[in-house]
Amino acid sequence: MTTLIIAVLGFIMIAAAVMAIYSKSLLSAIISAGVISLLASVIYLLLAAPDVAMTEAAIGSGLTTVVFLFAFHKIRRSEEAKNG
Amino acid sequence: MTIVTIIGVALFFIGLWGMLTQKNIIKIIIGFSIIDTGIHLIIVSIGYIKGRTAPILDAAVSRAEAIMRVVDPIPSALVLTAIVIGLAVTSLMLVYAVQMYKHKQSLDINDYEELKW
Amino acid sequence: MVKRFFILVMLILFGLMILPLLTGVPPATGLNPLAAKYVQDGPQELGAANLVTAIVVTYRGLDTLGEVAVLFIATAGVGFLLRRKKEHAESGTKRPASEILQTGTAFLMPLIFLFGVYIFVHGHLTPGGGFQGGVVIASGVLLLMLANTSARINQTLLHFVESLSGAFYVGIGILGLVLAAGFLDNRFLPLGHFGTLCSAGAIPVIYSLIGLKVGSELVGILENMRGDPL
Fold first, then answer.
1. Per-residue pLDDT tens for C159-203?
2. What ipTM was estimated for this complex?
3. C-beta of residue C70 within 8 angstroms of C-beta of residue B88
4. Distance from CA of B63 to the nearest CA of C (A)
5. Gap between the Cα atoms of C203 and C209, Å rounded
6. Is C230 helix (H, G, I), strand (E, B) or coil?
7. Which residue in A51, A62, A71 is closest to C128 by CB distance?
8. Which of C115, C135, C156 shows the shortest CA–CA distance to B88?
9. Chain A positions in Cβ-Cβ contact with residue C128 (cut-off 8 Å)
10. Which residue among A26, B59, C184, C228 is least crowded, i.e. fewest CB within 10 A of its CB?
11. Stated pTM of the model
12. In whole angstroms, what is the distance from residue C227 CA to residue B97 CA?
């Protein structure tokens, strides 16, 4: 049963990784990278490593996505200041 | 468990392929972050022993029987450090990308040719 | 096109090189000798119930010191590269946040801070510790930044908290060298009763300092990357 759950989560993670690399919009690539980290934290919990699961959930799907979005926003704002 | 090792290796190769073939700088940094997640999965999966539980000694696992019922704690300790350092390096790379964009107004990596021969 | 083909061939060869990782390593059936020694001697010598905490803070304490140094260098790098000149202020209009977000933040922020402090004070008893608690505190401050778009975080306070926590961390390490068996040894404070809050020597103190330092550094990175609010 655990193996089945891990296999389904792994399949979703690989699909999200391919979507992060090949999508046209940068915003959906950033969100897909956050989804990969979130599912990885569930797998860490199933592998009996609760400290690593807490750290990965907070850092990977929280702070890394926010740092990517801040950088994206800075680039977008500087592009609008140049054009508009 | 070997299925998690296979997932980790697959994520590593998808991230490496993304870093080598994409042109947008932000996509290259996303590929680096995916490589990081894959490697951490490989390391934690090596420490897992089937049927055992987390390395915390409380009412569920007592001190005397700890050595027969507990998963290897060393890979967890190593990955804990590695995740935080991955965040620090990713944020530094993104700041470099923002400064490069302000300098040349382009996010395509083929436009930055000062270091090529 | 030829370049992609070469990249594909190189990745396949690399995959063949690390194939023995998947097939040649059998799943473990027992703890290896180093892990067995840590699991057996850890609770007795150090008094910590969380074995991962015992390894991160005392057995591999120098690695944690190195990691705190790397975080400090990354924060300093981000702050240096995003330096704003005074006359080049970025202008733009920012909408104030919605009513739900502001009210919810007023309820939730003290609870998030309390939860983060709980995580790093109980690091030696339950899963968690300094890094997790610091990141939860940084997430609380991020919520404040999103709800209150014109708030500035006091940079002087951040610098003081970060520098003093780092200095005290090294100071406690030197106290361990002077009063107990080695650098970052936790046995110069009494070990106490196993499983209570005031146990495991200096591990709660060390982890609290690490939690404050990591939290303030991550808040510094977020504040520098956010830019100027209007």
1. 899 999 999 999 988 888 888 777 777 777 777 777 777 777 788
2. 0.92
3. yes
4. 8
5. 10
6. coil
7. A51
8. C135
9. 51, 54
10. B59
11. 0.91
12. 15
